Amino acid sequence: MHDEDLSAALAADLDGHFEHVMRLYQDRLYAFALRLIGNPQEAEEIAQDSFVRAYQALAKYPERLPQSGPWPASPSRTP
Question: CA-CA distances (angstroms) from residue 62 to 7, 13, 38, 54, 66?
């Protein structure tokens, strides 16, 4: 599923499709956090927190759903 299709699916059914987002991006997000932090345990926590924050933001503001790009990395850049 492409990012644009995924965005549409999430807009239609966030709960039903968010697990797919996690499976699709978890390895990339973890690798990104690991490169930044250098600690595997902290990188895992950062990745998990990023998904939680992304889900909460999408649930609260569905109109802000990104239309393209590696959007799950965005919450991991915010302290």
Answer: 10, 10, 33, 11, 9
φ, ψ of residue 72 in degrees (nearest 5)? -65, -20
pLDDT at 15 over 90: no
DSSP assignment of 30-72, as one string?
A: HHHHHHHH--HHHHHHHHHHHHHHHHHHHHH-GGG--SSS-TT
Decide if 49 contacts 74 (C-beta within 8 A). Answer: no
Beta carbons of 29 and 72 less than 8 angstroms apart: yes
Specify burial of residue 61 (Cβ count, 10 A radius: 0-12, 13-18, 19+).
Answer: exposed
Question: Considering only CA atoms, which of 25, 23, 22, 21 is closest in space to residue 6?
Answer: 21
pTM score: 0.71
